[in-house]
Design goal:
Layout lengths: L2 E2 L5 E6 L2 E6 L11 H15 L6 E6 L4 E3 L4 H5 L5 H19 L5 E5 L2 E3 L1 H7 L3 E5 L5 E3 L13 H8 L2 H10 L3 E2 H6 L5 E3 L4 H14 L14 H5 L4 H17 L4 H16 L1 H15 L3 H18 L14 E5 L3 H12 L3 E5 L3 H20 L5 H8 L2 E4 L10 E4 L5 H12 L7 E4 L6 H4 L9 E6 L8 E6 L5 H13 L3 E6 L6 H17 L4 H11 L5 H8 L1 H14 L8 H8 L43 H21 L6 H12 L8 H8 L1 H15 L7 H9 L6
Parallel strand pairs: 3-4, 4-6, 5-7, 6-8, 7-9, 8-11, 12-13, 12-15, 13-14, 15-16, 16-17, 18-19
Antiparallel strand pairs: 1-2, 2-3, 9-10, 17-18
Length: about 725
């Protein structure tokens, strides 16, 4: 290569008339845009603009599996109280994209790996895009997940590159596209093997140099029918429907998607430059807002949790290549499918052929679904399913480095399974229970190797829920813990490590939430009012609908464990037990709080009024929804404080990550402890005392809350 500049975030190499811009932020696992990166790009573009020997430009990444992951969020947080500085930064970023777009020679982005946020905005400002067929190549604008909107022209360029409906979906939800989907939607020009990515990008540069295509980003005369519709009276219908969808999904708690809609609509109505100006204003206004600050804090907390080694760094996990899963029900099959997806060899066991067959069919269905959605090719789905084999005995289990048990929630049964696994004779084998409430120490009470035993509590559905609660006992070894963490993270989970005890952390907290909702029901509250109150608070579903999904029988068993463990303060209402005694199990047997197919009609959207006849009090009354919210979320908070005080959970950070990613606590509130801090613990203690006086001692504030309130402290210090 003829010429090479000093390597400063972006290096330049010129070969055969094409300038190759290599992005590589040293010391970081991913590339991010930043003020120094803007400096460097401005310098390079200024040089290239006046270089008559350059025929075109290819922008690529020096990092494997990553193009550019967005703007440096830490830098954005620093601008919380500096609106003029943030405004200048945004304008500078928008100007850089415009300069790249206006370069007199064609520019092509060669994308391998994550191309997100500012990374996609950079690629959109190029004249062409080539993506690798690497499964990790994903293109998206996820800013709404941080309470923001794209700020580098993404709200204007993306709707002019792809169908309006696709652009709205990506910008309003943060949904990402695979390389093949991006090509199908017209976002990228070609998808090729990573090994020839630069070669094909260079070829596209030369094609564009010979046959320039009109840049549609600044064009107002759209000919595409969908884009044309967005400039006619039908535009209002398109955007109104999108706005209705946002409000339905978000409950109006997240301002960013609504602001994004306004900005996109303005760009279509008044032109590209007007849209760019509106985008900048909205971005600057959103950054210091509580929702954006809370979501960015969650982003950093999750990063911390994902990088926390928990044990000493010199402790090495076992190399796990094969995982045994015992129990082929919904949880066991879900764990097996995810493990196989992440390239583990899986041996699945159930007590009989019927159960095993159900589990294998479920796994096959999951992989077929991934192929249908083009997340995997059909061949890749077949190969992944081929990593799973089934048995009704223990053949093949001895060679598994890790065995995960997901059998019925019965202590004796789980102890028996552990004894049978240990009898196979692999002294290094780690045994993890997927129990949600039973103490791991009790399961390991008769174990020959208790140091190898721990809990790995997955959440349903396994392939969707991001949290994994890892439970260690006093006997659990650091190697076992490190191995469980390594496997959990390889499966893509955010892992929190908690200490052993009845219900561990998450089951105790969700149990307190459901328990309080049960009391409101028993006092005469209507099912739909209770659930709607908590949905309005920000939960994805209400507590009674959640019980239907989990299983009323499961909830009752969990409540019994917790009631026995904490008899002085944990009193369960009879209402849930009455339903369980009547044989109602929720969605799984079509008999719960709501109507389902098989129970006459309905799909879980309409309350089954016959439930009330099973309760002691059949008279129903309207409830104060704000009071329901207060009782339920404060019951959760109180249990979090007990668990933190008992050192079941180690950090406030882990509490908030656990309730958000495992239990559905509304992210826009920043986490249950951060939300309590924002209110003030003195006020929280007062509210809990008032509720305890009215509704029962279970709501009396935990000692930790009382202590911190007296000292004027907060959970985050």
């Amino acid at each position: 290569m003829a010429r090479q500049s000093a390597e400063k975030l972006v290096s330049v190499e010129i070969e055969h008339g094409i300038a190759y811009l290599r992005i590589d932020v040293k010391g970081q696992s991913v590339n991010t845009l930043s003020t120094p990166m803007l400096d460097r790009f401005e310098e390079i573009l200024g040089s290239l603009q006046h270089d008559a020997t350059i025929e075109g430009v290819v922008i690529f990444s020096g990092k494997q599996d990553n193009f550019v992951a967005g703007f440096d969020i830490e830098e954005l947080l620093a601008f919380r109280d500096n609106a003029p500085g943030l405004r200048a930064l945004v304008q500078r970023g928008q100007s850089l994209m415009a300069s790249l777009e206006a370069l007199s020679v064609p520019v092509v982005a060669a994308i391998d790996g994550a191309c997100l946020g500012g990374g996609l905005e950079l690629a959109l400002a190029c004249h062409g895009r080539v993506a690798s067929e690497n499964p990790k190549t994903r293109l998206g604008l996820p800013e709404v997940q941080l309470g923001l909107i794209p700020g580098g022209g993404g709200t204007q360029r993306l709707p002019r590159r792809v169908e309006l409906s696709v652009a709205l979906d990506m910008i309003l939800t943060g949904r990402e596209l695979s390389a093949t989907k991006a090509r199908r939607e017209g976002l990228v020009d070609d998808v090729v093997h990573p090994g020839i990515l630069l070669e094909v990008a260079a070829k596209l540069v030369r094609e564009l140099a010979e046959h320039p295509r009109k840049d549609r980003a600044l064009t107002e005369a759209f000919t595409d029918p969908v884009k044309l519709a967005a400039r006619t009276p039908a535009r209002k219908l398109v955007f109104n429907r999108a706005r209705e969808g946002v409000l339905e999904q978000s409950g109006g708690h997240y301002p960013a998607p609504l602001r994004a809609l306004d900005v996109i609509e303005q760009g279509f109505a008044d032109g590209f430059e007007s849209g760019i100006e509106a985008e900048g204003r909205a971005f600057v206004e959103l950054v210091p807002g509580d929702v954006a600050q809370n979501l960015m804090n969650i982003f950093f907390m999750r990063q911390e949790v994902n990088s926390d080694s928990v044990v000493a760094k010199q402790v090495k996990p076992l190399e796990v290549g094969k995982i045994g899963v015992i129990g082929a029900g919904l949880m066991g099959a879900g764990i097996a499918q995810l493990a196989a997806y992440e390239n583990y060899i899986v041996r699945l066991k159930d007590a009989n052929d019927t159960g095993l067959g159900w589990g294998l069919n479920y796994i096959k269905g999951q992989f077929d679904g991934l192929a249908d959605r083009r997340r995997l090719t059909e061949d890749e789905a077949d190969v992944a399913f081929g990593r799973v084999s089934g048995t009704t005995g223990y053949s093949g289990f001895k060679t598994a480095e890790l065995v995960i048990e997901a059998v019925f929630e019965n202590l004796e049964l789980k102890q028996q399974v552990l004894a049978e696994i240990e009898a196979l004779g692999n002294s290094d084998q780690i045994f993890a229970s997927n129990t949600s409430t039973l103490p791991i120490g009790q399961i390991a009470k008769k174990s020959k190797r208790p140091e190898n035993v721990l809990g790995m509590h997955f959440f349903s559905p396994v392939h969707k829920m991001p949290l994994l609660e890892i439970v260690r006992t006093e006997a659990t070894s650091d190697v076992a813990l490190a191995t469980a963490l390594d496997v959990g993270r390889q499966m893509g989970k955010t892992c929190i490590v908690v200490e052993d005890g009845p219900g561990f952390f998450t089951s105790r907290v969700i149990g307190a939430y459901i328990n309080e909702a049960g009391w409101v029901l028993q006092e005469g509250g209507r099912i739909e009012d209770i659930d709607q109150a908590m949905v309005e608070f920000g939960f994805p579903v209400g507590p009674l609908k959640l019980v239907d999904e989990v299983g009323i029988d499961v909830a009752i068993r969990a409540a019994k464990v917790l009631q026995e463990a904490f008899p002085d303060r944990w009193r369960a209402p009879e209402s849930l037990a009455a339903l369980a005694n009547a044989g109602r199990k929720g969605r799984k047997n079509h008999h719960g709080f709501y109507l389902y197919n098989g129970s006459g009609n309905g799909h879980g959207k309409k309350v089954d009024e016959s439930v009330y006849g099973l309760l002691a009090s059949t008279d129903r009354r309207l409830v104060d929804r704000e009071l329901v919210q207060q009782r339920c979320w404060l019951a959760m908070l109180n249990e979090c404080a007990y668990a933190l005080d008992e050192k079941i959970v180690r950090h406030a950070r882990d509490v908030d990550i656990g309730v958000i990613f495992g239990l559905g606590f509304p992210p826009f509130r920043g986490g249950i402890l951060r939300y309590a801090d924002s209110i003030g613990l003195d006020r929280i203690a007062h509210q809990l005392n008032q509720l305890a006086d009215l509704f029962g001692e279970r709501l009396r504030p935990a000692p930790l809350i009382v202590e911190k309130a007296k000292r004027g402290q907060s959970f985050y210090g």
